[in-house]
Every structure is written in structure tokens, then in C-alpha cells.
Amino acid sequence: MPDLSQIVKAYDVRGVVPDQWDETLAELFGAACVRVTQASAIVVGHDMRPSSPGLAAAFGRGAARLGADVTEIGLCSTDQLYFASGSLDLPGAMFTASHNPAQYNGIKMCRAGAAPVGQDTGLADIRDLVTEWAENGPPPASATEGTVTRRDVLADYATHLRELVDLTAIRPLKVVVDAGNGMGGHTVPTVFEGLPLELDALYFELDGTFPNHEANPLDPANIVDLQRRVRETGADIGLAFDGDADRCFVVDERGEPVSPSAITALVAARELAKHGGGTVIHNCITSWSVPEVVKEAGGTAVRTRVGHSFIKQEMATTGAIFGGEHSAHYYFRDFWNADTGMLAALHVLAALGGQQGPLSGLVAEYDRYAGSGEINSTVADQAASMAAVEAAYASRQGLELDHLDGLTVTGPDWWFNLRPSNTEPLLRLNVEARDEETMGRVRDEVLTVVRA
User: Fold this and answer.
1) Which pLDDT score, from 0 to 100, does residue 335 have?
2) What is the distance of C-alpha 283 from the center of its chain?
3) Which residues belong to any copy of the Alpha-D-phosphohexomutase C-terminal domain (predicted)?
4) Which residue among 1, 339, 402, 421 is buried most deeply as judged by most CB within 10 Å?
């Protein structure tokens, strides 16, 4: 049996199929999820990867074997699964490996109402049960096994999103969307139907082998086609979704990428105006622009660690109306505190179409500083490299150091965050400053120590 500690991470299960896990294990995960969540019913969906339908069906068999009624929603985006979990008030399981290569697959699990299943909120218990049953045999079946039914929730998902953001009165926009052969090709046509949007579709054919490029827009190489098409066609905006379409990246009318921090600030301002104030969550590597805009819009900004489970927990604790991460995950109270790239995209389209200027001018208000983007460095000893960087800055006057997530050092006109990867021998560096020259100087200084 594979080492489950290597494929069960903070909030999901992810590994190579069938080398690290297969349908036999998926069935055990279904049973364990029902046991831990004490669910009498559960909703299951999957993406377009070749292994996804079989894994999802196996998970459903395991859940039904322990007495839970299973609702299969079939092909869906991850945020469509969250919609089903929230609207039906059922625990859910989404089979996807998001932006990872084709040979990978995984499960993202949630409790009823799309509440997260994290390491401390059930995932470790699920892992332990699966380990026990894989070694000693599966649990006995329930006296009454659950039913398995099919349900299509795509239209209801689209209706819910369009009720949250009204685009019916915006000026017509030409929009290029690169779905990367992922689930955006499934959801975008239905969500955009009937809106004043001229859709130019790139790679909408569902294909989990990703024949055109990886479904990971965070890598600049994977948005080149989108940028080219926007420039060639004179489009107003370009959108790129990742494999399971829970993240959305934006390029402006010049084909230039828009920082996810700027999108976070823009959407935060709109949500604060809609709700008359409130709390907005941002992680420790989003731009200074985010808390500044939140304060200017009458809201309260709360800084937290990087990661899905931390953001969702903080949103639940504070009653936040919105949360954003620099990885282009956007969380909404009106969407059960879950992340949905599609809803963020609708906000951007509404803001753009509600005025006459180009997107580059609109987002300039929210993109105030020079950022490095995330820079990865392979290191032999993460702890030693982190300690060396901290030692280099700890004795300097006028700096603030904190350890909310890795190491953050803040100066009068710059900051950087250095975090170890949980899955690879990497350190991840993000730097921001008031100007490009200062940002470059700080970036190079930190990297010199990291890579010594």
C-alpha cells in the first residue's frame, strides 16, 4: 500500500494514478468520509481526467456501502461541486488534481455547506481509517446500503452566480477565455449564456491529457496563447481557468497579466460596497494594495496564512464577506465561504463593463506596488536556509519580522516573505516594494543568502 501521508495533504488527496492510489483506495476513502462526517448522504463530482469517472464511482460505492445516499453530479468544476454541497447541504467530494499533470488525480472533500475538511478537521481521521482498512480489510457493509442517483446542477450553479453579480446592463465586451482543456470549457458557456459578452473560446474541448498546454495559468508559459489572442482580436479582456476551474487569471486588453492581488482589491471594494462594509481576508503574500483598498472602502482587513483551509477557517471565525489569495483563489461569504474563480471573473467583467475605460486603466487603481511574483529555490536544507535569511535581517534596525507563515520581513518601503514548500525541497520567495529598483535589490539580496 502507498504511504498515505505522502498523498494526503492539508485539505485533499493527490497522487499519481495508479502508482500511488487507485479505485480500491477510492472506495475506502468514500467509506471513511462517510464514517468521519457521519453523513447520511453525500454529493460526488469529477473533472475530465481519464481516471476521474472511475475513481468518483468507486468513492460513491464506498459511501453507499456504509449507508449513505450518493448524488452523482458528474462532470463539474470544483466550485460547481461546492455549489452542490452548499445548496443541497451535503458533504461533497470532487475528483480532480487541479492544475497538476495528466497522470495525477485527487479528491477535494468538504463537509455539508462546503465547509472544509482539513488536517485537523477530519482529513487525518480519514487517512487513518483508510490505512487501517487497507491493511485489515474493508469495514462491514451497512444493513441498508445507500442509493446512487444522478443530478445535473450546472444550470442552477450558473443561475446562482448570475444572481450574485448582475451583468445584464453592462456595455458589450469581447472576452477571450482559455479553458486549457479543463472544466472551464464545461461551465463558461452556460454561465455566460445570454449575457452581453462576445465569447472567443480557446481550448474548450474537455481533455484531461492537456494536449495544448498545462492547465496551470500561474506559469506564464501557459497564458501565452491567451495573450496572443487578446492582442490579435482587440478583445477587452482575457480569462484563463485552471484544470478544475476554481481559479481564474486575468489579462488586460494589451495582453498583460493582471496581478491576482489587484483582482482581490477590486473585488473586495465591490463586495464592501455591496454589503456596506465588513471584513476581508487576505494572506501574507498579497500586495499592500489589498489592505489599503479595504480600509479606504470602509472595511477591515485580516491577514492570515497562505492556504485554502486557513482562509476558510478565518472567514468562518470572522464572518468575513470576502477573501483573496495571490494564487488567484477567491472566497465569498455568498458562496458558502468557498472559492470560486468564476464569481471573481463575473465581478471583474461587471466592473469593466460598468465604465468606458480599458481594463488596464481600471486595475491601475488597485496595482500600486512593484512585485517579484513567486520565486522558487531548490535547497538542500529548508530549515538551515530559512535560519540563514532570518539571521541576516534580525539585527538590522527598523525592520519587523514575523512568523505567521514562514518568515516575513518588513522594511519602511518593502517587504518579503519566505516560506518552505510542504511537498518539495523548495523555498518560495515573494518580494514587494514601492518601486522596481528597491524590489529588485531586496529580491537579489535574499536570493543570494538562500542560494549560497
Assistant:
1) 98
2) 13
3) 374-447
4) 339
Confidence tier at 349 by pLDDT (50, 70, 90): very high
- Distance separating alpha carbons of residues 131 and 41, to the nearest angstrom: 23
Q: What is the DSSP string of 320-348?
A: -SEEE-TTS-EEEGGGTTEE-HHHHHHHH
Residue 223's contacts (CB-CB under 8 Å, 6 or more residues apart) are 178, 217, 238, 240, 249, 251, 257
Residue with cell 535569511: 389
Question: What fold, for 370-451?
Answer: TATA-Binding Protein (3.30.310)
Containing 73, the helix (H) or strand (E) segment is strand 69-75
What is 260-365's CATH topology?
Alpha-D-Glucose-1,6-Bisphosphate; Chain A, domain 3 (3.40.120)
Return d(Cα 337, Cα 331) in angstroms, integer.
6
- Rounded distance, CA 374 to CA 219, Å? 10
**DSSP per residue, 365-410:** TT--SEE---EEEE-S-HHHHHHHHHHHHHTSTT-EEE-SSSEEEE
Are the CB atoms for 10 and 40 separated by under 8 Å?
A: no
- Classified as helix, coil or strand, 428 is strand
Which CATH code of 3.40.50.1400, 3.40.120.10, 3.40.190.10, 3.10.20.30 fits the domain covering 155-258? 3.40.120.10
The pLDDT of 89-99, averaged and rounded, is 95
> Which residues are designated catalytic?
98
Strands 237-241 and 248-251, sheet pairing: antiparallel
Mean pLDDT of the 146-159 span = 98
Helix intervals (H) in 38-73:
52-65
Q: What is the pTM of this model?
A: 0.94
> pLDDT tens-digit profile of 7-35?
777 668 888 988 888 999 999 999 999 99
Grid cell 472544466 in the structure block, residue: 183
Tell me how far CA of residue 393 lies from CA of 338, 371, 379, 398, 403, in angstroms. Answer: 37, 20, 19, 10, 13
Terminal Cα distance for the chain, rounded? 39
* Separation CA 131–CA 357 (nearest Å): 57
DSSP-based three-state secondary structure for 417 = strand
Contacts of 427 (CB under 8 A, 6+ apart): 376, 377, 379, 382, 385, 386, 418, 419, 420, 421, 450
Alpha helices in 239-307 (DSSP H): 260-275, 289-296
Contact 242, 217 (CB under 8 A): yes
In 10 A of CB 168, how many CB atoms? 9
Outline which parts of the chain fall under CATH 3.40.120.10.
4-151, 155-258, 260-365
